[in-house]
Specification:
- It contains eleven helices and no strands.
- With 251 residues, it is an all-alpha fold.
- The protein folds into two domains: 58 residues, Arc Repressor Mutant, subunit A (Orthogonal Bundle), CATH 1.10.10; 144 residues, Tetracycline Repressor, domain 2 (Orthogonal Bundle), CATH 1.10.357.
- Helix 8 crosses helix 9 and helix 9 runs antiparallel to helix 10.
- The longest helix has 37 residues.
- It is globular.
Length: 251
């Protein structure tokens, strides 16, 4: 008696794994697109996390002061882990510095604004930059908050030494650029007798800092939009002999 074996037919290859689903091979271009999309999504998520951390730090610094705010508190407020904070920022000083960079004019732009002119145009450019720096406080809520933190909620302890050094370097760069501008031909001879470019630059910076400090302390002291230009023009009259003539030349 002959027996027929049940199972696969002779000559037909056995399918491994017991699956009848055929594998789908995607074109190389499709795989690259998927990979780039995933990378883009990861980058966007990282940027959002970084922005959330900065926003949380800003509000806590304003409420509690910089020295009395920990990275752990910032992480909780941002809804992230402390490890995520350290992924984006080396320490509190680095975070504080990056927060300031959100509202400070980049050094290269400041250099371009102050060194791209000569004579009267250079003086007018300095005036306009100074006015913009102060009037923007009234229209940019984040800028107002961050400068309030810097001027009234920040104790530069050892923990923030690096941030303090970087901030001082930024301030000194502005003063140095102003000094170089006042020393230009067409500017230096306009200074009042006894004033050097160095003294003029320090005097202007002191006035700007005073206006920043006063208004962020008490917004009722003056109206940045209406009063900044007259206040700074009074300073420039004390520095430049023919300041009113310089202003008329611009109108």
């Amino acid at each position: 008696m002959a027996f027929r074996l049940r199972g696969r037919k002779e000559g037909k290859p056995k399918r491994r794994g017991g699956s009848n689903v055929a594998r789908i091979r995607l074109p190389r271009r499709s795989l690259d697109t998927i990979h780039l999309t995933a990378m883009r999504r990861t980058k966007e998520e990282a940027e959002k996390t970084r922005a959330d951390i900065l926003a949380a730090a800003e509000l806590l610094f304003l409420e509690n002061g910089v020295a009395h705010t920990s990275l752990e508190q910032i992480a909780r407020a941002a809804g992230v882990t402390r490890g995520a904070v350290y992924w984006h920022f080396q320490n509190k000083a680095h975070l504080f510095h990056e927060m300031l960079n959100q509202v400070r004019l980049p050094p290269e732009q400041m250099t371009e604004r102050l060194c791209g002119y000569s004579g009267r145009d250079a003086l007018l450019s300095l005036r306009n930059l100074s006015i913009e720096a102060i009037t923007s406080l009234a229209v940019d809520a984040q800028r107002k908050r961050i400068f309030t933190i810097l001027l009234h909620r920040c104790e530069f302890t050892e923990e923030l030494r690096e941030a303090e050094d970087r901030h001082n370097a930024f301030v000194n760069q502005f003063i140095d650029l102003c000094e170089a501008l006042f020393a230009l031909p067409g500017c230096v001879e306009r200074l009042h007798p006894g004033l050097t470019p160095r003294l003029a630059s320090r005097g202007l910076h002191a006035q700007i800092l005073g206006l920043f400090t006063d208004w962020t302390r008490d917004i009722s002291l003056f109206d940045p939009q209406q009063d900044t230009a007259p206040l700074l023009d009074a300073v420039f009259r004390g520095l430049i002999r023919d300041w009113d003539e310089v202003l008329r030349s611009a109108s």
